[in-house]
Hints:
This protein is an all-alpha fold.
Amino acid sequence: xxxxxxxxxxxxxxxxxxxxxxLAAEAEINQADTAWLLTATVxxxxxxxxxxxFFYSGLVRTKNALSxxxxxxxxxxxxxxxxxxxxxxxxxxxxxxxNKIIGGGNVLMSGIELDSIRSLxxxxxxxxxxxxxxxxxITPALIVGSYAERIKFSAVLWFTALWMVLVxxxxxxxxxxxxxxxxxxxxxxxxxSVVHINAGVAAIIAALIIGNRKGFPDTxxxxxxxxxxxxxxxxxxxxxxxxxxGSALASNASAGMAMTATHISAAVGSLAWMVCEWMMYRxxxxxxxxxxxxxxxxxxxxxxxxxxxIGALSIGISAGVVCFFATQYVKRILKIDDSLDVFSVHxxxxxxxxxxxxxxxxxxxxxxxLKTSISAQFMTQLIGVVATIVWCxxxxxxxxxxxxxxxxxxVSADDETEGLDLVLHNERGYNL
Length: 432
């Protein structure tokens, strides 16, 4: 007892007087982790508005530019409300007997208090709630690129709402909410299946059901503003650090390596796409290099917290080459008008990244890397990829068919010629 001081006595008194809840919160909430996740949340929202909105809007014709901005903005608002009403609970809540398939609870954020802490993390659940909301927002916003310039605005809203409940929430729960894929050891660090395969598969289904734009593929439909597109792409690159590094859910070494891998893959994916285009068409385009960047980012997403620099380089090169030729095949051979290449970049990129995760995952990375043999993990990854494709493909097909029979998905040929900005929103984004 000779080392017991007045300072020790004062500390014991404070421990006795302080409420138990405050002690628990002080012991479990990490301010650095919380600050980083707040920042990451802002970055991921920044990816959709304005990043993705600008990227997509610049790629369409002038008469449809505002419609793309409107769709991205409206999806942001709609998904935010749905997340609060109950989609968050379906994705991350406890589904009881059905918990392997779907979650439940947390309706209108019930059960989430000011000092609630998300299990297995050191951050408040409100922060986790908001972080995951931004992922839910960008996923249906990605699909916008497949049906651009020809879909009814009402169909966008209805499809987004139903798709979030029936497709996004279950797959998210399977992977991140304690569902059956999580139990199998499926590795998806930041959304290869939940975000990119889901968006890509829904996109190709939508493009097939809605049909090609009037004049495709014979009529040239060049982007109206590549400057806007490059600005949006640059915002996506910056925002993606929140997307991938934020998925560590802590300010730690895993977040640092995820950020490093993300940047490497984006850079090398851009260069790989540029080289492919240069060799095939003798001139590298700005559109090509920024699309290669997005391919590199989408493909590294599921692997970002599990691979090192060599893995990131390999995945980035694969992304640039494979996604480039996928785009050529879908548009030039199959002649499917996935207008802004959502399936080829995000769908194929997500599939490729998930499978390569099993190959390049490093066991040494903060305990998050490969814990089984490469072949066993590859099979687990393949099961997750196929399950996501089938679930998303079937439900998306049914939803789009039902909406087509009721609301109608597509504007008339005359309205398409006039442009969606004026026909659907009574506005123009340019002066005649």
